[in-house]
Write a structure and sequence with these properties.
9 helices; 7 strands; alpha/beta; 231 residues; homodimer; 7-stranded mixed β-sheet; N-(1-d-carboxylethyl)-l-norvaline Dehydrogenase, domain 2; Rossmann fold
Chain lengths: 231, 231
């Protein structure tokens, strides 16, 4: 039996706690990050709090192995005196939506091989996709995730605005959105590109710009150029 | 039996031909757009050629009902003297990838209700999702599609570049990419937004910028601002 303490009751903490509850061979306790006086002893203590609070929370934990779950904080930011590691799950967690951990990539890091193998065992108790990722790589993944998640979602938002303005249901775009996402599973994004920008179809680009407001025009123009430059 | 002629052997023409071949109650013929001397007579003639060629091709067709398949060309750009319409399928078609027409939204337009109902029947012989969309709405959909497909794919491309540079497999982002796409099925994109931009997390934004090259920085900065401004 592996004993796990999760510190933090945000989206990540809550979903992770539920997953470990249902896992074989794991005993899990969850505590609020404001009650650090009596952290139960455990094989691993998982700090799932906001990035800014990780250093302070970790400085108060005396347990033997402490990890955080952040994509953008380095392992050495942990201020516990014992072994350190990272247990980063690369997925977007929403409050009211179940997480399928079998699909989540686990990005793991530890100060030594023994602890790494321990984290791997822990991840495999709830998931399948485990990667050994150091702090530098994890930072790069986090930036890449901003592009493919946050920025992509903003493209959906701008598409939705255009639909609202022209009285078209956004749902009409959903199959295209999903196909676009699935396509890059088998085709490099560079090879998957289509549309007026990559074709340098000036007439269509002009027609599109005529339909947009100034803010939409700015984004349209800059991304079109970026596609054409192969950025 | 409905008789269909498809003019054009590009991606759209080829996939559409295959779909009609397998449909009940449809007889379909496909011809190359360079052989317009002997277009077979048919209940509907579908012009699936590049946008720029639609007017010219349509001017040479004498059949009674002629439609095109373009998202960005208006119905009245058709130059045949008989009834006109539009049979636009809102999906990205790739040469070597099967198309599931049951998932494709059909955006239909015709000059009168009788012809519209005919197109609806035709679309339902191969698909399920049929929308009555006029030329103005279709143009807006086409621009929105550029945002959610071409521009989104460019975000994937930039994410992939970051992965390559930092020796991380791009596949690690695939579950996040797919979850991001599926999320907007049930949540407005505006509500689905997360990450450093919407949180105005300046420290993380600065860390991200430090990791990017100048061109990536430009895109990162502009989209971050656009998210923060609620554009």
């Amino acid at each position: 039996m592996i004993s796990v303490v999760i510190i933090g009751k945000g989206n990540v903490g809550i979903h992770l706690y539920k997953a470990f509850l249902n896992a074989d061979g794991i005993g899990v306790t969850q505590i609020n990050s404001r009650n650090l006086e009596n952290v139960p002893i455990a094989d691993v203590t998982i700090i799932a709090v906001s990035d800014d609070a990780i250093a302070e929370v970790s400085s108060k934990v005396k347990n033997s192995f402490v990890v955080h779950t952040s994509g953008s904080v380095s392992m050495i930011s942990l201020k516990n005196k014992t072994d350190r590691g990272v247990f980063y799950m690369l997925q977007t967690f929403s409050k009211n939506k179940e997480v399928d951990f079998s699909e989540v990539p686990f990005c793991l890091e530890a100060e030594n091989n023994e602890k790494y193998l321990f984290l791997e065992k822990l991840a495999k108790s709830i998931g399948n996709n485990v990667y050994q990722i150091d702090s530098k790589q994890r930072k790069a993944i986090h930036v890449a995730a901003v592009f493919v998640n946050n920025f992509t979602n903003h493209m959906y938002k701008m598409g939705n605005d255009i639909c609202i303005e022209h009285q078209v249901p956004f749902e009409i775009l959903q199959p295209l959105i999903e196909e676009t996402a699935i396509k890059v599973k088998t085709l490099l994004p560079e090879k998957a590109q289509t549309g007026p920008a990559i074709r340098n179809d000036k007439k269509t680009i002009k027609n599109h710009l005529d339909l947009l407001n100034n803010k939409q025009k700015e984004i349209y123009t800059i991304i079109t150029k970026s596609i054409q430059n192969g950025d």
